[in-house]
């Protein structure tokens, strides 16, 4: 029997497909034990640009889906993740986690994804309101997704941080372009595979393995990106330059902080509130 | 409620069409259409389950209502010839299949179509008035019609000026349709509203009334050249306008959805809409047509399946 | 007749109805201890479907005991885990949706198109929505540390058996409660099938218990000393009894009772859509809807125009075999309900209203009432005041918006209302003044898991659906 395993190619995830980088470059990934694992695709600024185009088109579809539909789709992602549990665990172990920690992290990640999925049809209730204005008007505020969110997630814990950042952005209808460093690459790619096989429209999530310092500035400066989550940028100078670049078109920003922004507050970072007035009278 | 004078226009219609301001008042005074309500009525009607003998009847009815169409820049005599052959004998292996209602071609191709269809009951319809955009002078639009009629067209499918409509110049459109109708002579006139450019159901309703008041024999949804073309809810709105016009004048106006009707399932849904909005009297090619090209093959394959009990395939219908 | 629709029967081979059922207690079907038996039928054919238990006091006791003993563990589970059970249930319901829809139509009499396209999708959506609340209770608006109540005794009606079951069970479980549910006497079968779903989802035994029965069983459940919450949907008459019987106890109660909704059509309404809304309002589900638009309040100036269109449109209503996919109006749920409808319709005649009946062929067997419209109805007529719960529309007129509101509110009920006008400010002002828990503008009978539903006045209290729907099953944890 020929039991030589087939090595996986690790590519980018853009517009629902898995292309290599247009630059042809790779990033060599070694296991925590020094073994060769993969030549990851190394995304370029042009790949990032393509990803933003895909994200815009994904946003048009995703933001008009009903909240119920988005919740269903996200729940389905969790189903797929559950099926790939062993794959996720073994990859986290390959990248340095202990088996016990990996198991815990994967379970927590799936549960957290489910937690986010359940928010889809509840945000308007918790974050919207009918406002009792002083006058004969009916006035209500509704939360809406802001558009495309560029994301540089925290690198540890690898999978959980991806879930936290991505689900928080897309549950309300945003789309995203996610930059991932080597240390979270395997988890990110398996997450991409889960997304690709579960009814999430193409372009809603795009995941680019890359050299963060090289590509992030282009996303931060991109005028068709509406928001940037750079909680994963530990380097102070880079963080500052990204925030300055983002200021050009007034992106909504989420900076790295000690305690971080999690859960509902992270979802809210990517919501716009629209308030509508209408007179009441015969 | 209305006069006993069959086919006479009630007084207030002649007043309503006497001037631009009167016409505008009339059209803007029509009751509005709630989009969500119209969409959901069309959607429920689309769940009607058409089986067995109803399906057989529906398929044959749909075939007999088709205006088999080719409207391409690259149309040639050869193309028109094969289209007409298909129109006469849709299924080469089954002579029980009804022939279609008409072929629809550009005005300059009419003579070739006429030649092929000399001894058949199939009509030749020509698109005219600078189809599909309609963007040409009054004179050119009418001349386009005259030539098609002179070439022998039995039916004319004209387009309204959507730009004029969106600017609110309703009387201009009214008079344009009247001129075209006059140039049609004996040919019957279908007025294409191009509903995809009108955007709202209120506009579709107004345009429907405008066309009927001006003398349309048929109102038609689309040129088929832009998307969206025909949809079930737009068709519903137009059928309801026809219903109301009939109540007011006792005139029966025909309806033709065109473009985007690809499958037997689609076609049957349209027949359901007609049946449950206007009744059986409109389920005839004299009052209802389907503007389509690839639909015919799907109808034939479904017909084959109903006969044989197994699914058919593209090899068993002709590609023209 | 051209293009007459051929029969399009939905196959019943997908359902497997047992000859008899026990009670679902503690995760399995058990024999009744002290109950009697009765037969449930198909109201469209009067065919006997199965033998069902009328649970006795000992049975009720066993069910409550099971719920109580499961409560400790269930309420302490992480919300996320409860949520996962509910997600499983939601998914299984989606998977078995067709089976449930067919069974619902067979036992209830409603058209398969409705159970397939309306009831069952709403059922699954309800479970999905509340699954997502289970781990977010601190956002329910009941305080930062909300607690479940305990055991809920839930009694549901026969008009939307599965939907009413979902409205009761989903929020209760999400909040950490356990339940004993009694389906209606005439429609037990889908609730009993739901027990199978609980088993497939591996729901811990005792979390959901289903006991069949009639009024006595319901009463025994409501009055059981070891339940903490009563949830009832049904008639105002029984609602009163329940409200009175829990007096002096600590039991929380929510009631969703009857209605006599006004469907108000103004002179500028989008008239074709208004006609659809009227028809949907009163003939959907054969009028067996608490929030049915049973009073058409039409502005006098457009009455004739509207009625002409209404009668014309009604001609295409297809009344008959609920299992035919083209049926619009199905069977009346029981002989008893049919008798009630007939009695009230007769009162319309004797009190001086004018009856118009749709000409339609009704099957020989089964319980049927043709869609009927009474015009020249006044507020004093019984058919304008009492809930008929059948396909009977009472038409009244009004002159001004003010008068419409007064007439709409002039009833002890307050469940729902409809407003038809193209003027936005009028919608909002009229809605503002209507004493009704659900107001539909330019639509009717729309339901959603996120949209709170419930009544004012004698239509009951409490709301089901959305965040607000959780309040019934939680209490503040603050001291």
Q: Please, could you describe this protein's structure?
A:
- The complex is a heterotrimer of chains A (about 280), B (about 325) and C (about 475).
- In chain A, about 45% of the residues lie in helices and about 20% in strands.
- Chain A is globular, with a radius of gyration of 20 Å.
- Chain A has helices at about 45-65, 65-85, 85-95, 100-115, 125, 160-170, 185-195, 210-220, 235-245, 265-270; strands spanning about 25-30, 35-40, 130, 135-145, 150, 175-180, 205-210, 225-230, 250-255, 270-280.
- In chain A, helix 2 (about 65-85) packs antiparallel against helix 4.
- Chain A starts with about 25 loop residues before the first strand and ends with a strand.
- Chain A is α/β, with parallel strands linked by helices.
- Chain B is α/β, with parallel strands linked by helices.
- Chain B is built from 14 helices and 8 strands.
- Chain B has helices spanning about 10-15, 20-30, 35-45, 50-65, 75-90, 110-115, 140-150, 160-165, 170-185, 195-200, 200-215, 230-250, 265-275, 295-310; strands at about 65-70, 100-105, 125-130, 155-160, 190, 220, 255, 290.
- An 8-stranded parallel sheet of chain B has the order 7-6-5-4-3-2-1-8.
- In chain B, helix 3 crosses helix 12 (about 230-250) and helix 9 packs across helix 11 (about 200-215).
- Mean pLDDT of chain B is about 95; it is low at about 1-5.
- In chain C, the strands form 5 sheets. Chain C has a 7-stranded mixed sheet with strand order 13-14-15-12-11-16-17, with helices on both faces. A 6-stranded mixed sheet of chain C has the order 8-7-6-9-10-18, with helices on both faces.
- Chain C has helices spanning about 55-75, 80-95, 95-110, 110-130, 160-175, 190-200, 215-220, 235-245, 270-285, 305-315, 335-350, 380-385, 400-410, 425-435, and strands spanning about 25, 30, 35-40, 45-55, 145-150, 150-155, 180, 210, 230-235, 250-255, 260-265, 295-300, 355, 370-375, 390-400, 415-420, 440, 460, 475.
- In chain C, strand 3 and strand 4 form a beta hairpin.
- Chain C contains 14 helices and 19 strands.
- The mean pLDDT of chain C is about 95.
- Chain C is an alpha/beta fold.
- The chains are: A alpha/beta (about 280), B alpha/beta (about 325), C alpha/beta (about 475).
- At the B-C interface, helix 3, helix 4 and helix 13 of B face helix 9 of C.
Low-confidence stretches of chain B: 1-6
Strand order of the largest sheet of chain A: 7-6-5-8-9
Helix percentage range of chain A: 40-55%
Cα-based radius of gyration of chain A, to the nearest Å: 20 Å
Q: Strand portion of chain B, in percent?
A: 5-15%
């Amino acid at each position: 029997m020929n039991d030589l395993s087939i090595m996986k190619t690790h590519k980018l995830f853009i517009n629902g497909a898995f292309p290599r980088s247009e630059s042809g470059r790779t990033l060599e990934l070694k296991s925590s034990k020094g073994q060769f694992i993969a030549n990851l695709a190394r995304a370029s600024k042009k790949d990032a640009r393509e990803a933003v185009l895909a994200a815009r088109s994904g946003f048009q579809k995703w933001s008009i889906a009903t909240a119920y539909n988005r919740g269903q789709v996200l729940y389905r992602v969790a189903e797929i993740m559950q099926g790939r549990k062993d794959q996720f665990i073994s990859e986290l172990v390959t990248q340095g986690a202990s088996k016990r920690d990996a198991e815990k992290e994967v379970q927590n990640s799936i549960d957290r994804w489910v937690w986010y999925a359940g928010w889809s049809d509840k945000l308007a209730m918790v974050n919207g309101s009918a406002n009792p204005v002083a006058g004969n008007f009916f006035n209500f505020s509704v939360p809406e997704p802001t558009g495309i969110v560029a994301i540089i997630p925290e690198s540890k814990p690898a999978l959980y941080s991806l879930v936290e950042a991505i689900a928080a952005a897309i549950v309300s209808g945003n789309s995203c372009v996610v930059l991932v460093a080597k240390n979270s690459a395997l988890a990110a790619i398996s997450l991409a595979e889960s997304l690709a096989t579960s009814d999430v429209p193409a372009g809603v999530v795009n995941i680019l393995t890359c050299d963060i310092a090289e590509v992030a500035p282009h996303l931060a400066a991109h005028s068709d990106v509406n928001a940037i989550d750079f909680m994963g940028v530990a380097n102070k100078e880079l963080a500052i330059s990204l925030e300055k670049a983002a200021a050009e078109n007034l992106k909504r920003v989420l900076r790295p902080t000690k305690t971080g922004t999690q859960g509902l507050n992270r979802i809210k970072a990517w919501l716009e509130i629209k308030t509508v007035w209408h007179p009441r009278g015969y | 409620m209305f006069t006993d004078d069959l086919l006479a226009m009630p007084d207030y219609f002649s007043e309503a069409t006497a001037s631009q301001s009167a016409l505008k008042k009339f059209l803007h005074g029509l009751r509005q259409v709630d989009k969500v309500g119209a969409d959901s009525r069309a959607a429920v009607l689309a769940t009607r389950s058409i089986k067995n003998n109803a399906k057989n009847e529906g398929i044959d009815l749909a075939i007999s209502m088709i205006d088999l169409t080719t409207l391409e820049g690259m149309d040639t005599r050869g193309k028109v010839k094969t289209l007409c052959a298909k129109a006469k004998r849709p299924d080469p292996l089954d002579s029980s299949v009804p022939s279609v209602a008409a072929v629809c071609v550009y005005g300059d191709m009419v003579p070739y179509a006429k030649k092929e269809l000399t001894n058949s009951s199939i009509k030749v319809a020509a698109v005219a008035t600078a189809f599909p955009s309609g963007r040409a002078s009054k004179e050119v639009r009418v001349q386009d019609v005259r030539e098609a009629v002179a070439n022998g067209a039995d039916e004319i499918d004209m387009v309204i000026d959507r730009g004029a409509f969106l600017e609110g110049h309703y009387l201009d459109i009214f008079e344009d349709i009247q001129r075209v109708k006059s140039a049609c002579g004996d040919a019957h006139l279908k007025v294409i509203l191009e509903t995809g450019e009108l955007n709202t159901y209120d506009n579709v309703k107004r345009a429907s009334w405008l066309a009927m008041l001006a003398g349309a024999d048929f109102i038609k949804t689309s040129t088929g050249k832009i998307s969206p073309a025909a949809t079930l809810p737009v068709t519903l709105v137009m059928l309801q306008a026809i219903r109301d016009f009939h109540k007011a004048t006792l005139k029966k106006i025909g309806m033709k959805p065109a473009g985007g009707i690809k499958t037997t399932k689609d076609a049957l849904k349209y027949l359901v809409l007609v049946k449950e909005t206007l009744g059986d009297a409109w389920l005839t090619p004299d009052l209802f047509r389907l503007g389509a090209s690839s639909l015919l093959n799907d109808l034939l394959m479904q017909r084959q399946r109903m006969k044989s009990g197994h699914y058919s395939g593209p090899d068993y219908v002709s590609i023209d | 007749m051209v293009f007459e629709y051929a029969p399009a029967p939905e196959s019943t081979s997908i359902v497997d109805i047992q000859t008899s059922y026990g009670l679902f207690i503690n995760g399995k079907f058990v024999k009744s201890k002290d109950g009697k038996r009765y037969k449930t039928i198909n109201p469209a054919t009067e065919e006997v479907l199965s033998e069902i238990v009328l649970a006795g006091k000992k049975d009720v006791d066993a069910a409550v005991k099971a719920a109580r003993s499961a409560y400790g563990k269930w309420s302490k589970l992480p919300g996320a885990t409860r949520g996962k059970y509910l997600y499983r249930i939601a998914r299984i319901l989606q998977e078995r949706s067709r089976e449930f829809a067919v069974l619902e139509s067979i036992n209830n009499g409603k058209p398969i198109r409705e159970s397939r396209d309306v009831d069952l999708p709403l059922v699954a959506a309800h479970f999905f929505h509340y699954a997502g609340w289970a781990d977010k209770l601190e956002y329910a608006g009941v305080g930062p540390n909300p607690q479940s109540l305990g055991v809920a005794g839930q009694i549901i009606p026969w008009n939307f058996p599965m939907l009413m079951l979902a409205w009761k069970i989903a929020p209760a479980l999400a909040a950490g409660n356990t339940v004993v549910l009694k389906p209606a006497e005439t429609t037990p079968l889908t609730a009993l099938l739901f027990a199978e779903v609980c088993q497939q989802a591996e729901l811990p035994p005792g979390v959901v218990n289903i006991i069949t029965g009639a009024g006595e069983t319901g009463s025994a459940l409501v009055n059981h000393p070891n339940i903490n919450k009563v949830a009832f949907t049904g008639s105002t008459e029984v609602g009163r009894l329940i409200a009175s019987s829990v007096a002096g106890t600590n039991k929380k109660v929510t009631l969703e009772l009857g209605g006599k909704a006004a469907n108000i059509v103004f002179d500028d309404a989008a008239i074709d859509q208004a006609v659809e809304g009227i028809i949907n309002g009163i003939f959907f589900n054969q009028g067996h809807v608490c929030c049915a638009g049973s009073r058409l309040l039409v502005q006098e100036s457009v009455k004739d125009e509207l009625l002409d269109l209404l009668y014309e449109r009604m001609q295409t209503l297809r009344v008959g075999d609920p299992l035919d996919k083209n049926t619009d109006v199905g069977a009346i749920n029981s002989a008893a309900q049919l008798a009630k409808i007939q009695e009230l319709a007769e009162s319309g005649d004797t009190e001086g209203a004018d009856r118009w009946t749709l000409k339609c062929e009704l099957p020989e067997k089964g319980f049927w009432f043709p869609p009927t419209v009474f015009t020249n109805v006044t507020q004093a007529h019984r058919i304008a005041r009492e809930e008929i719960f059948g396909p009977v529309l009472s038409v009244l007129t009004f002159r001004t918006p003010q008068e419409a509101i007064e007439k709409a509110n002039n009833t002890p009920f307050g469940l729902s209302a409809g407003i038809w006008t193209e003027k936005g400010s009028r919608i909002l002002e009229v809605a503002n003044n209507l004493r009704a828990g659900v107001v539909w503008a330019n639509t009717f009978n729309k339901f959603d898991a996120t949209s709170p539903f419930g009544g004012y006045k004698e239509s009951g209290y409490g709301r089901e659906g959305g965040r607000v729907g959780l309040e019934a099953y939680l209490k503040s944890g603050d001291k």
